[in-house]
């Protein structure tokens, strides 16, 4: 690589060691994993969706949807009535 940059981060040693082991078992180094993450950020122009943490309200909605506790609207007017209730 012509113009390499170095990134230094502080992280709990236990996290680093555990992650390094998992990555090594997959044939990757920590540097390669970080490089892959940054390339994904560039590709998606945001933090990869699988890493985003939903807020508590979203978590509740996701759990409700998975368990079938959802409601249906007959039409657009009914939908907005339910949303604004």
DSSP strand count: 0
Number of helices: 4
The outline comes out as elongated
Share of β-strand residues: under 5%
Uncertain runs with pLDDT below 50, 5 residues or more? Answer: none
**Average pLDDT metric:** 90
Which structural class fits the helix and strand makeup? mainly alpha
Helix content: 55-70%
Task: Tell me about the largest β-sheet.
Answer: none
Summarize the helix and strand pattern as letters: HHHH
Outline:
The protein has 2 domains: 13-51, no CATH class; 53-85, no CATH class. Helices cover 55% and strands 0% of the residues. The chain has 4 helices and no strands.
Characterization of this structure:
With 85 residues, the chain is mainly α. The protein has two domains: 13-51, no CATH class; 53-85, no CATH class. The protein contains four helices and no strands. The chain has helices at residues 13-25, 30-44, 56-66, 76-83. The longest helix has 15 residues, at 30-44.
Topology:
Layout: H1 13-25, H2 30-44, H3 56-66, H4 76-83
List keywords for this structure.
elongated; mainly alpha; 0% strand; 85 residues; 2 domains
């Amino acid at each position: 690589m012509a113009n390499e940059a170095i990134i230094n981060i502080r992280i709990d040693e236990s996290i680093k060691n555990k992650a390094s082991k998992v990555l090594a078992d997959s044939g990757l180094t920590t540097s390669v994993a970080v490089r892959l993450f940054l390339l994904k950020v560039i590709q998606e122009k945001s933090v990869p969706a699988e890493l985003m943490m939903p807020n508590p309200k979203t978590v509740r909605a996701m759990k409700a949807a998975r368990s079938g506790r959802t409601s249906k609207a007959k039409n657009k007017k009914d939908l907005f009535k339910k949303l604004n209730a």
